[in-house]
Design a protein that fits this description.
Blueprint lengths: L2 H11 L6 H4 L9 E9 L18 E9 L14
Antiparallel strand pairs: 1-2
Length: about 80
């Protein structure tokens, strides 16, 4: 690039800091696809009076969520004649 264009491009490129990590929890991965399992919960809680045993219940299985990692890219072409 011409020096004046290089200055304009690279100075403005770093002008805004990345913001997505303030909104999203960012983690690294080496897998193409990952899974999370949601726990659905237990339902309504029972009233417990003094001296009574606590009722036991199993957690209900929720849905499986999958994450497929996607790459994004963009390029510009600059023509230069000699």
């Amino acid at each position: 690039l011409e020096p004046k264009f290089r200055e304009i491009f690279f100075d403005s490129y770093d002008e805004l800091p990345e913001q997505y990590s303030d909104v999203f929890q960012v983690k690294t991965s080496k897998k193409a696809k990952e899974y999370d399992l949601h726990m659905a919960g237990t339902g309504l809680w029972d009233v417990k009076l003094p001296g009574q045993n606590i009722n036991e219940e199993d957690m209900a299985m929720g849905e499986e969520v999958s994450y497929v990692h996607t790459s994004f890219a963009k390029m510009i072409q600059v023509e230069r004649e000699f």
